[in-house]
User: Which sequence fits this backbone?
């Protein structure tokens, strides 16, 4: 019994790291630009679709897809901000909220037109099922790998923000976009870069996800809701909080599925509501 | 002539804050702008550094017209600002705030070490979050940040506000060093005595217009007072 | 903009009375096939008005209003089938179910600002959808038929659904106008502009938002119940589909957020487009998404807003939250 519980916990952590990564993109975009990108889930799925499309051209390990798709999706995120969302950056969140909602509706259905409504996944061959046994617990190699990549990305982003000059400029812009102009920084450029980073981080999650389970054009909604819950649980504006939030939801998901195999995302949603109800007043959506 | 302003009219929305302002600053000068609250002093600085965008007239800096230019462009040409209220970046440490001055990427004599020489009190605070230091220390950081942009012209907005006289005195000593490095300073102050003692020339603003200008020694207190409050 | 102290002015009363009379007498002069279509249109119109009440006037964008559509529909079906009550009588009960739900949600959800409220509502809708889909008593994934409808004569049933749709549509318009001209309504407008300032003026932000939220859930729930009642069948995939919000949002944004006339225009446009694009499969959804997004950028006041800019104004009562976004 303990073995099962520990197994669920460990695998929940692995899954949670992906959830955290998806949430990270949303949190980052909100932290810097106060924009909630409702189409976030669709970009995660777009990354997965691009990954699937590129599989036949990929000479080696499917993991090579990750940086390629991340680079492509960086451009997509950058363009989204530069050409669309930049027009509505401001104190009022409503316009960006509505625009990205409309965009998400359009994207979902464009995906159906381009790739069809069937479920797909990124085929990784034997890697999907290989596992090793540690202390009596079965650990999948793919989940461990995705965990490693996800944590590496978190660390990488943390280093970027705290140790590089670009990171410094991004944090300063997030603090005060007007004053930052007095020091030669164009906020719009920073916003575009930040959105590019946010989308590309979540794109990585999308590709990794597609390796372990299947998806369809409408899976974006699930991804968005998870991302959102991760951000709320972890605390708005907290990088590592997103990872923690991801873990909580990942474990909830696996525990929930263990007892109720057809429940979809019900248990993470319920855990989210429970935390919402008992959390201190501080969950007001305001940056700490 | 480093900075020349001709016929400047600046608006906030529909409200006109500055009326036909003419003024100039030369290389190596310290010029004070004094006036009561609402006289238009900060708006004048905002017009020069580009944050106040609704304006008509002509502003030429170092040979380039900057009237319609964006604030980031203007800062890269060599105008740095110490904003009213300091406006330090709350997520950043003291050192990181200072280094933001470097984002302008202008070559010049100021480095973070030279700023620490000028303000030794900041050395032990370098890794502290910028909001967790005293008002006087924050003011030093704000000045240091602007200096690291290696400006030709330094705009200072109400740096004595909220600080004790001793602290203000310490901070004002840095202007000697700044001037000797060749940087011009435009100093907006409510504290008339302080500003006039540090400055080579001054402008007094009243209701958005220049009510008096010249060398501080040329006028007696009463004359300046009349220009300040309006006779 | 003058605020009238009377909640409803004589010219408006006349217009509404004439419209009400004409519509209620519908069965006398409208062909029965059209009655069904009009009923559908009016149910959707009501939902749009209710979504508009929350988004346009209070500034709470809900991406989870499909929850009320579904809860309303399922309440009606369940109560009607289990207790053998006429479905027409169950419509208000459906509304009641939604109001109770909204009342229970409000203490937690009102803590959330802006986008967080919007998405939390969506999460709620998903939770309800999953629970209903797994509930055998409610027909699981396949849904339930409206058994009690079989006992009602077909023509009377169509008329009954139609009359409900007319009643709800008229009520949604009247309630919106009256609410917004009342003290509560002025408070809502103040809240939309700046809720901290409103609070400092002594306006009870919480209770004003609550009133709007409850009314919005009531109307949406009853409209959802009516819509599915008229379809004889309800299923979780359809009733809790986020596309309900897509439709409400499209109608409101295109017609004019924060206006009473806007959803009228928007609903008309929506159904006209739907008629033309019926065979294009996904494209009409793609189109709706794109149009909704573009209208925020290009025409934040919607069609009605653009018209009333030229001096046409039917109901003196305009609140456009997106005009406060100056760029």
Assistant:
């Amino acid at each position: 019994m303990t073995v099962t519980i520990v197994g669920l916990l460990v695998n929940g952590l692995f899954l949670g790291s992906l959830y955290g990564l998806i949430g990270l993109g949303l949190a980052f975009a909100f932290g810097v630009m106060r924009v909630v990108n409702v189409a976030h889930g669709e970009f995660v799925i777009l990354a997965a679709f691009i990954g699937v499309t590129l599989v036949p051209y990929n000479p080696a390990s499917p993991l090579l897809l990750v940086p390629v798709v991340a680079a492509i999706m960086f451009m997509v995120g950058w363009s989204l901000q530069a050409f669309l969302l930049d027009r509505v950056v401001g104190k009022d969140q409503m316009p960006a909220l509505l625009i990205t909602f409309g965009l998400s509706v359009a994207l979902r259905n464009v995906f159906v037109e381009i790739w069809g409504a069937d479920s797909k996944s990124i085929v990784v061959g034997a890697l999907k099922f290989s596992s090793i046994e540690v202390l009596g617990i079965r650990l999948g190699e793919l989940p461990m790998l995705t965990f490693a990549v996800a944590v590496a990305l978190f660390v990488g982003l943390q280093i970027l923000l705290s140790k590089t000059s670009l990171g410094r400029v991004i944090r300063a812009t997030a603090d005060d976009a007007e004053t930052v102009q007095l020091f030669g920084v164009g906020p719009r450029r920073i916003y575009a870069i930040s959105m590019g980073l946010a989308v590309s981080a979540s794109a990585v999650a999308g590709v990794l996800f597609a390796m372990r389970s299947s998806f369809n054009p409408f899976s974006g909604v699930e991804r968005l809701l998870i991302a959102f819950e991760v951000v709320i649980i972890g605390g708005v504006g907290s990088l590592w909080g997103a990872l923690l939030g991801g873990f909580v939801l990942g474990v909830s998901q696996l525990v929930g599925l263990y007892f109720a195999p057809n429940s979809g995302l019900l248990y993470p949603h319920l855990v989210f509501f429970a935390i919402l109800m008992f959390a201190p007043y501080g969950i007001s959506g305001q940056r700490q | 002539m480093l900075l020349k302003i001709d016929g400047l009219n600046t608006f906030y929305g529909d409200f006109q804050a500055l009326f036909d302002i003419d003024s100039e600053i030369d290389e190596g000068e310290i010029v004070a702008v004094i006036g009561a609250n609402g006289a238009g002093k900060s708006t004048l600085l905002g017009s020069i550094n580009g944050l106040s965008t609704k304006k008509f007239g002509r502003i030429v800096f170092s040979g380039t017209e900057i009237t319609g230019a964006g604030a980031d462009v203007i800062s890269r040409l060599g105008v740095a600002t110490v904003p009213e209220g300091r406006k330090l970046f709350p997520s950043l440490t003291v050192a990181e705030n200072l280094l933001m001055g470097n984002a302008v990427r202008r070559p010049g004599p100021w480095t973070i070490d030279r700023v620490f020489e000028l303000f030794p009190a900041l050395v032990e605070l370098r890794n502290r979050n910028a909001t967790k230091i005293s008002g006087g220390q924050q003011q030093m950081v704000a000045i240091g940040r602007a200096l690291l942009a290696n400006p030709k012209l330094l705009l200072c907005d109400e740096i004595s506000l909220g600080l004790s006289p001793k602290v203000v005195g310490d901070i004002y000593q840095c202007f000697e060093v700044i001037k000797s490095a060749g940087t011009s300073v435009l100093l907006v102050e409510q504290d008339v005595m302080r500003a006039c003692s540090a400055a080579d020339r001054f402008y007094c603003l009243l209701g958005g217009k220049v009510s008096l200008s010249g060398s501080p020694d040329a006028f007696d207190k009463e004359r300046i007072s009349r220009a300040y409050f309006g006779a | 903009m003058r605020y009238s102290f009377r909640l409803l002015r004589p010219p408006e009363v006349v217009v509404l009375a004439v419209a009400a009379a004409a519509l209620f007498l519908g069965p006398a002069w409208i062909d029965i096939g059209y009655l069904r279509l009009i009923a559908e249109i009016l149910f959707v119109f009501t939902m749009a008005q209710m979504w508009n009440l929350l988004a346009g006037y209070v500034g709470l964008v809900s991406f989870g209003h499909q929850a009320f559509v579904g809860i309303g529909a399922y309440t009606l079906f369940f109560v009607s089938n289990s207790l053998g009550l006429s479905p027409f009588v169950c419509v208000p009960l459906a509304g009641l179910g939604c109001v109770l739900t909204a009342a229970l949600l409000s203490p937690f959800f009102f803590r959330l600002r802006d986008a967080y409220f919007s998405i939390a509502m969506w999460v709620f809708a998903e939770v309800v959808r999953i629970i209903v889909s797994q509930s055998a008593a409610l027909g699981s994934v396949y849904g339930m038929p409206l058994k009690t409808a079989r006992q009602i004569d077909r023509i009377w049933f169509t008329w009954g659904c139609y009359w409900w749709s007319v009643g709800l549509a008229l009520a949604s318009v009247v309630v919106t106008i009256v609410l917004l001209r009342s003290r509560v309504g002025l408070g809502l407008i103040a809240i939309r502009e700046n809720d901290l300032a409103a609070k400092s003026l002594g306006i009870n932000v919480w209770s004003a938002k609550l009133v709007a939220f409850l009314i919005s859930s009531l109307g949406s729930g009853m409209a959802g119940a009516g819509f599915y009642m008229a379809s004889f069948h309800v299923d979780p995939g359809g009733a809790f589909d986020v596309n309900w919000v897509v439709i409400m949002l499209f109608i409101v944004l295109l017609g004019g957020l924060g206006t009473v006339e806007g959803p009228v225009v928007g609903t008309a446009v929506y159904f006209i487009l739907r008629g033309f694009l019926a065979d294009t499969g996904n494209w009409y959804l793609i189109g709706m998404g794109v149009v909704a997004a573009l209208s925020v950028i290009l025409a934040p006041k919607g069609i009605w807003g653009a018209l009333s800019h030229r001096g046409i104004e039917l109901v003196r009562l305009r609140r456009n939250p997106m005009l406060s976004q100056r760029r």
About this structure: The radius of gyration of chain A is 19 Å. Confidence is low (pLDDT under 50) at residues 281-288 of chain A.
